[in-house]
Amino acid sequence: MGLIVQKFGGSSVANTERLKNVARIITDTYQAGNDVVAVLSAQGDTTDDLLEKAAEINPRASKRELDMLLSTGEQQSISLCAMAIEALGFPVVSLCGWQVGMKTNRNYGDARITRIDRDRLESELGQHRIVLVAGFQGINRFDDITTLGRGGSDTSAVALAAVLHADRCQIYTDVDGVYTADPRLVPDAHKLDEITYDEMLELATLGAQVLHNRSVEMAKKYNVKLEVLSSFTGHTGTTVREVVKTMEKSHISGVAKDKNIARLALVGLSDQPGIAFKVFSLLAREKINVDIILQSIGRDDTKDISFTVARSDLARAKEHLEKRRDTLGFQRLEVNDHCAKVSIVGAGMINSPGVAATMFEALFDAGININMISTSEIKVSVLVDESQADRAVQVIHNQFFREFGQNR
Ligand code: ADP
Ligand code: ASP
Ligand code: MG
Q1: What is this structure's pTM?
Q2: Mutational test site, ligand 1, from 182, 212, 227, max ligand atoms within 8 Å of CB
Q3: What is the mean pLDDT of residues 386-392?
Q4: Which ligand is nearest to the Cα of residue 187, counting in written order?
Q5: CA of 43 to the centre of ligand 2 (A)
Q6: Ligand 2 close to Cβ of residue 151 (< 6 A)
Q7: Within 13 Å of residue 346, how many CA atoms lie on the same side as its CB?
Q8: How far apart are CA 279 and CA 301, in angstroms?
Q9: 320-328: average pLDDT
Q10: Angle CA(108)–CA(122)–CA(156) in degrees, nearest 5?
Q11: What's the CA angle centered on 382, arms 376 and 388, to 5 degrees?
């Protein structure tokens, strides 16, 4: 007994039958003596459909108006689910982001939560109502509706769990938990019973969309006990927490893929101090995030610098670099937007020589060429051609989980 925050994703609330199923999960939790705050996403593909509709009317619509539109998807879900709960005979109230005081910064389309006023939530819970909250949305200081970025309902849920000091935050989705790779891509991927916040954060950031990466960051910061589980099967899911039993084991916890990436190469830069500073400070000023960076050794007083950015930032990055061509002094700007990043993640990796080599061997055996490599204490990422990315995930997964045996 206690306070439980539950979050149900788009596929879990996709139609009437599934909404009724979610209503049952929520009311069962309530009937077991818990206070329940449930965060819902928009039904099925509603958010994509709304974006398409907007693009038909104005492909350059302002982010403010897009947020105004997108937030309606979540509002539909909570009101419909509240009706289902009413029909089951339980006290319930549905609330939008602004009604639960979900304050964000002004950044339409990718807003950060700055504060949550607990008053309304506490008053509703005090009256023993089940509280349904629209995910993915907040309100900024101009009293405008904002959204938190795609997949942001996970972050709404964790933020509410943190501010209400919930006993647990359960993220209900369409798979049984966090797997060693996307189970839709690698059918023999294994479900993890537990994973650390750090590993989960890397996996989510590197493309495993099962959790919004900011939700994991927040869960770690506020020590929210997070659980990922299926709204369809009722099986035990994956717990995300600080330390897990298997942490010392020197194998990886997962493979992830990110196709939202593009590579730029500045060829023939003059080989002088300060060039990298000029290039990357220019991009930083334009708020363009750079990921993997590779600098060639100098030859004939020139060098090349390649780096990756999010595909959505490619056009802007290109434009700003071309504009400064003379000051930066490069000969050519090459662009590749048909690449993908494939990564392995594991907390024990640092103490285990040969992990990267095992990954490269799998790619070599499959004839997949590596364009760039980047490593940190708990991950190795490679850039490959987009058309080979799915196969790269499969062969890497096969190599590791055959080699190390699966004993998590
Ligand atoms: P929701 O709508 O519930 O938020 P998402 O589609 O955002 O669900 O996330 C769930 C999906 O994440 C799964 O259907 C699965 O295909 C994908 N996924 C990618 N990587 C992983 C992984 N490592 N473990 C589990 N699911 C993953
Ligand atoms: N409905 C939003 C999206 O599709 C938010 C979410 O589902 O988390 O991105
Ligand atoms: Mg999601």
Answers
A1: 0.92
A2: 182
A3: 98
A4: 1
A5: 9
A6: yes
A7: 28
A8: 18
A9: 92
A10: 30
A11: 155
